[in-house]
Automatic annotation (TrEMBL):
Domain Ribosomal protein eL8/eL30/eS12/Gadd45: 5-82
Top-level lineage group: Bacteria
Name of the protein in question: Ribosomal L7Ae/L30e/S12e/Gadd45 family protein
Recorded family membership: Belongs to the eukaryotic ribosomal protein eL8 family.
Key words, A-Z: Ribonucleoprotein
InterPro entries per the UniProt record, alphabetical: Ribosomal_eL30-like_sf, Ribosomal_eL8/eL30/eS12/Gad45, Ribosomal_eL8/Nhp2
Key word Ribonucleoprotein present: yes
Signal peptide (UniProt feature, chain positions): none
Keyword Ribonucleoprotein: yes
Length: 83
């Protein structure tokens, strides 16, 4: 499951803006999207990932993704970064 990938990743970018930036710069290896996130926040990033052929994984909730990222609040998206 991608939850484990997030926890094991050396570098992650949390949030739509940061994740989008990493995808645009070609640094994102995979993008994780919370299923309960507002589609208005995630739809552009998902489309960008498909265009750039970056794998997208889904987790059940923003709370779960936030926890995996080591933050106390939910996260809509996170990008596993290869730096």
């Amino acid at each position: 499951m991608s939850y484990d990938k997030v926890k094991q990743a050396k570098s992650i970018s949390i949030g739509t803006k940061k994740a989008t930036k990493m995808v645009e710069q070609g640094k994102a290896v995979e993008v994780i999207v919370a299923k309960d996130a507002d589609p208005r926040l995630t739809i552009k990033l998902v489309a960008l990932c498909k265009r750039m052929e970056i794998p997208i994984a889904y987790v059940d909730s923003m709370k779960l993704l936030g926890k995996a990222c080591g933050i106390d609040v939910g996260a809509a998206v996170a990008a596993v970064v290869n730096e």
